[in-house]
Amino acid sequence: MARVLLIDDDADQLDLRKLILEHHGHTILSAATPAVAESLFREDPPDAVVMDLRLPEAADGLRLIRQFRGSPAFRGRLFVPSGFPTDLAGTAEEALVDAVLAKPFRSENLVALLSTVDAR
Fold it and tell me: Which pTM value belongs to this model?
């Protein structure tokens, strides 16, 4: 199963998704802030990143997308669950994301996407 960096500034959503993904066998690194996410990413890039876009501002998420994709050490997948998918639409960062999940979405959809990730 995959090592997943899960990023969301909503603590309840972060905890719930972490439990669901761990239940499906994934190893989860969780971050509630961009700074924590950057630190965890630098330590050991994950197989996949699942990140909210507004952390709390869309600019925070867009910056992280550019940073993660710009890292030569990251060859993983990047998924963005967002309550505001239009924040990503039409941006250069949109092409750097593997999938956007408009909130609310079914957890099964995220689990299915993660099943396509090649774990190390």
Answer: 0.95
